[in-house]
Amino acid sequence: MAFPQTPSHALPGAFVNTPAVASRYNSQEDPVRRRLFRTNSSSGGQVARFSQDATMGLDAPANPEEEQAMRNLSAQNVPALPPLAKAASYINSALRKDGEYPQLDSYCRQISSDYDSSYCDSSWTPFKKTHMYNLPHNVLDQFNRAEVSTVMGLFAELNHAFVTVDNSLYLWDYTHPRPELIGYEDSQHNITAVKLVAPRPNVFNSIITHILVVATISEITLLGVATKDAPGGTKTIELYGTKMTLNIKGTEARVIAGSADGRIFFAGHSDSDIYELKYQQDDRWFTSRTGKINHTYRPWTAAVPSPSQMFWTKTSDEYILDIVVDDSRNLLYSLSNKSTVRTYHLEAPNKLTKVIEKTRDDFMRDIAHTLSSGSVLLKENMSIVSISPITAVEDFKVHLMALTNTGCRLFMSATSAASYMLHSPGQVPQSMQLQCIKFPPPEKQRARTDRFGVPADAVEIQSDALNGSRLGVRFAPGYFIDFVKDRDVPDSDRLFVSAPDSGRISHGRQTQNLRYHEHSAWIDLGPKATAQDVGLITKPFAATAQPQGFGNELAVQFDDPKGCEFAILTNKGIHIVRRKRLVDIFSSVIRDIAGDEGLKTEMIKFRSAYGPVETITAALAVACRQGENGRPGMSRGAVDQVTQDRAKQVYINFGGHPRLPEQDGQPATVEMVQPSTRHTALALYLSRLVRSLWKSFVIKAGADASGALTIQSAISVDKLKEVQGGVEDLRNFLNANRPFIQGLSGPADLRRAASKQEELGFQGEHQAMHALETLMTGITEGISFVTTLFDERVTDIFTRLDDVSRQQLRDLTYEQLFSQDGGKELAKVLVKAIVNRNIENGSNVETVADALRRKCGSFCSPDDVVIFKAQEQLKRASDLSLNPNTSRTLLHESLRLFQKVAGSLTQTNLESAIEQYVSLRYYAGSIQLCLVVASERDRGNSAYSWINDGKPVADPRAKLFDERKLCYNLIHRVLLDLDSASSREPELVDGKPTLIATKRAEAYDVVSSSSDEVFHFDLYEWYIQQGWTDRLLGIDSPHVTTFLSRLASKDVEHADLLCRFYTMRAQYFAAAKVQADLAQSDFPISIKDRLTLLSKAKTNASVTTTGVSRQDQQLLNHEVTELLEVAHIQDDLLERLMADDRIPPERRPEINAALDGKIQPLSELFNGYADQAGYYDLCLLIYHVADFRNSTTIAQTWSSLIQQTHENIVEQWSVYEAERRGRGAKDQDAPPMPYERLAAQLQDICHRSSNDSFIFPVPTLMPDVCRYAFEHAQDGRANADVNWPIALFLSLGVNYDLVVRVLEQMFEAQEVPFRGAGRVRIIEWITYAVGQWIRDLSRNGRPEARLDSWVSELMAECDGWVSTNMRNNNEGGADIGDIARAVREVRRAVDGLVVSPITNRSMGFF
Q1: Is the whole-model pTM more than 0.70?
Q2: Looking at CB atoms within 10 Å, which of 167, 491, 591, 886 has the fewest?
């Protein structure tokens, strides 16, 4: 998409000059065009706005980026901070923003003619003529007596002026109404030049502060100047002879300059040479006290006249007009009448090397390259009339400003060959280029913006406003004073003054429209006034010590109410011109307007030029009685009430509202609120009030003449009081207008909230304003504390501190003192030192502490006074001359006082008190104080709830626990000291307890009687860490049970201790429950240890416990028994699997981790391990524990087990036979027989299943075992007892009746293999079983014992079958004949025991 008529260069924000774009979208919003302003729609947009001020319209920013940048001073999405820390972050942000003011090079580029011009009587004028001092009559009298020449000049920094009348020099204090002349009339020749310079170090007496260089046509004389401060801020001077005079015959001295290190340079109107006057304290062998060096023609020294004075006739008409020195770069510049500027490099001690020479043609060539079109101001008639250096502190790149006779200022940058090393201080420049041309202001004021509101870009390069400039001086950071010949009045000068509009420059930086804005004014010097000299009265301007931020006048406008002042000497008198601060301009503007509409118009103008934050900051400053600087008849702080009320109205009504940015679905919090412009302005104003001391150290350590330590204030006390006064005015203003200022009115703001967002915004604004108010209180009290500190003998207090505190005091800054806990804690240490010093000097502690509390309450609160009293009592108690009763009374009193203010005791104070108590063996008091302090630090007992909730991570309650823990640690130290002391002394002497035993009993009584559960828990934990478990188990306290019960589920050792605790108190049921729970826990306990725990739990559960019902005991016993069975199975599984060759090695760690730990569910053990591995014996045990009763599955499992057992043993025998044949294995290494292994398995399963008839089903299992024995030859053929199956079941407790009935069923069923000849084996087993039955009956000796008739019938049937089948074979069993005989014998025995026949019998299980 193309936009017609797009401007030639990019504008910030949007293409606002592109016409009629939206019309192409049928008057709808252009989807491509970026938005410069937010709409009033409540839905969407960047932020949620609160209660727009429709009448003033200042809440919507002119540029969102600028407002966002400025609000970042106070609105940063950071975690919640304490009020002081939050306020300190606001101050640091504001100071950082002020320090980011652009350096000169960033806006002094190309060409510029941006001025805001005004008349001297306008409210907007940047300069104000404050005083006019007429020339004294006695000076005029001397002036009128002149016969040859007169010279007038200023020593503005010394508030003195001078006049030379022929060969006499007169100085006077121009601020004095009737000054006395100080004359120098010893010269024999006419004076040509006078200059005040700095003296060379170590040459003159220390009282000499300046050197007055007086040049005549034949010599130069040096006079010493001693200055003294006088009342009213002025200075008095005295002149001293130095006996230093240099003969300069053959040369001239019309121009003199001096460097900061005392070097003196001069030149004349006869040539363009630069001379140096060198001087020393005394005459030496080869040099006199004074001498000169010609630095231009070095071979021709002072002994040879200059070429212009030699016999040849060719002379040069070029001479030096001015010499200036840049001490920051060690450069000297000279200007000749040919508009040639030469640059010299100064090197110690007396070397001066020319490095650059730039002629007028060079200047014209640079100008031609810079200008695209010609200017009448820079044509052939152009000449340079003055030069001014620009120091490296002000800008790294720009070096020099040259003024032309047409009023153009040429800013020159000098570079070396290594241009990339511009910032290196050691580089000597080798070339000079034109950086910027600042043209005179337009003769008619142009509109500041075009019709679209965009800053006008046209540069006026033809203005004739300053044509005729004859003398111009530039002072940092850009104050320009130009004397212009009045074209209408001959022999008269007009004064043009200008200065960088730092507010607009800074505003342009934030809006990405950085331009060299200046505001200027014409100042009337009076009729027929001719300017003679100009000088800077105040110190040179420097907002910072580096180019970044150097020129920010707004940042320092409250540091010195006078601002920058200049003295301008004319033939009529001396004019004092003062640079007006922005706050002065604001005050003047609102004072002179009429009505609310006029106020609104001017505020829009201010806001457009300087932005909303600077506008509201200026209003706040005026409301706090700043401003009116330089207004005749008005002193500082004398703002009239109308002006103050209007400023208050602007601050309250134009200050905007808080905002809550959109959170993209995240919940909004108070910390996300961006405070209003009103709050940002408050933070900015406060930062500028305290900027001179915020980062400064509080003290400055040094030494006096004797080498003794001296401690002085790094900031003068007067400056501290000035800052304190400004902050107090601000606090008073806020307090007086609290109901009307949003953010300070409290609940009234919340009642105006129409939504949750607005309520959050008001809360955020209130917290931000409250934070600044808290900081202001800290500042005023902190300054009061510092002034109080220096009212004392600071050196004595310093020596009383320990080494750490001394170093902290050396490093202490005002920022730390005002806003950081460390600084306030150090201040309290100093307060204590002050109090102690005064107590030692005989002062009363209450008197001293009350005085401190009145001046700086936050550093010495009422609680601090009580602490001082307690410390005093404690100190008295340590006096060894006191009797024990008195000492103990003082200790009790100190404890009472400490407990009274326990909530205010710092950790340092507490540790100090405890240390002294322990040294005095006041153990009980030490513990009691620690407990009280711990309770006060957590009055809501939040630490206890945090412990009950499982100590969640990142919980704020954890900090409260940590605070209490510090107190408990002290108790631990006390107990250790007590135990150590009691171990060295006996407990009883003559049957009576000793003193240490009594103290021990008192201390432990305090411990045991404490109701602080958190303390008890911490103490018990400490006991465990110390290995004092017996001491813990010996404590009879419910807290021990609670402590161990809570930790038993988290730690094995604690659970074991709890079991021991219960067992020692015969609480076996509780111990069993703990052991059972521990066995089921997730702790890393092996399965064997869990078996041990369950075994112990079963034992404890079986013991009767008082207070426990039988039913509960049985339930627990049953639960533990089941767990124990499962654990046994799991343990067997683990051992079996670890030894199983089928398990791959990489699978073993996984199995071990799964089974050698927590008890697994039966289903997991069966499905995951036992069934898959084919461990049928364990499967049967799992059936038993799980109460599984599926007879088919159980029978199949038994069959599988029998088959598996046989196969395993057979396999083992095969291996054994192979090994025996190969290596000759011994018989004792032989594996068991299959029947032996099977019998062992049956016995184990039967015992572990408790003869469970479902798991051990005799009617189905015994036939299987018998069948196995017969089919697999596990009888006589295997050297086994043929009756081993029957003997096995009988040994397992199966009754004879059941065994015989099962055999009877097998006999009658005639199933394979027990059919035909195989039935004889069953008959053999029946005979054995019945025989054993009969023997058992006979062994018991019961005469009433009888057998049922079915047994007799069974034996008869067996006898009949054997008799008819005598020829059958019984392989592996007894001989058939032997069986027949045995059957008949048993039959006869049975018949003797049968009572009566039973006709209808059926098989049953008994």
Answers
A1: no
A2: 491
